[in-house]
Amino acid sequence: MAMSVVVSLISILVASTIFSQPNAMSFPQELLSTIGTAVPPSSSTSLSPATSSILGPPFSNTSLSPATSSVPRTAPPLVPALFVIGDSSVDCGTNNFLGTLARADRLPYGRDFDTHRPTGRFCNGRIPVDYLALRLGLPFVPSYLGQAGTVEDMTHGVNYASAGAGVIFSSGSELGQHISLTQQIQQFTDTYQQFILSMGELAATDLISNSVFYISIGINDYIHYYLINVSNVQDLYLPWSFNEFLASTIREELKNLYNLNVRRMVVVGLAPIGCAPHYLWRYRSNNGECVEEINDMVMEFNFVMRYIIDELSQGLPNSNIIFCDVFEGSMDIIKNHKRYGFNVTTDACCGLGKYNGWIMCISEEMACSNASNHIWWDQFHPTDAVNAILADNVWNGLHTNMCYPMNLEDMVT
Question: Does any domain span residue 229?
Answer without folding.
Answer: yes
